[in-house]
Structures are given as C-alpha cells and as structure tokens.
TrEMBL record:
The keyword Transmembrane applies. This is Uncharacterized protein. Residues 1-21 form the signal peptide. Keywords: Membrane, Signal, Transmembrane, Transmembrane helix. The chain crosses the membrane at residues 45-65. It comes from the Bacteria.
Length: 74
C-alpha cells in the first residue's frame, strides 16, 4: 500500500517534465524564432503555473480526508 502511494507521488511529480503545453499564439510566435531557448522558458513557466492549483486542491482534499478519518475513529 505504501509503495503504491510513493509510486503515485513520484509519477505526479515527474508528469510536468513530459508535458508540452503552449497556447496557439505563443506557439506561433515562438516557432518563428530560430533560438528555441525562449520556447523552452515559456513551456517551463506554463507548467510551473499549472502545478499550483493541483497542489492547492490536493491539500484541501487531504485536509478533508484527514478530518473525516479522525471523525470516524472517534
């Protein structure tokens, strides 16, 4: 059970490394440039901004889970 939780956490932490996300306007502007370092920076920024809502929702879900588990054991 613990190994499964650790595996899920590792996969969720590594998932942004495999994602390639861009809006269509950013893609059009960045593809026209010869230097791809700006495109990589934009991708990284989008991924970092995308992670925080998931962390927030996960924290709230964990808090609710813990509070309900505590109520059931009492």
């Amino acid at each position: 059970m613990m190994n499964k939780k650790v595996l899920i956490i590792i996969v969720l932490l590594l998932l942004p490394l495999f994602a390639e996300a861009q809006c269509s306007m950013c893609r059009a502007v960045l593809e026209s440039e010869a230097d791809q370092s700006a495109a990589k920076g934009i991708n990284d920024g989008i991924l970092y901004l995308m992670v925080f809502p998931y962390i927030l929702i996960g924290g709230i879900g964990y808090y609710i889970y813990r509070s309900r588990k505590k109520d059931q054991s009492s």
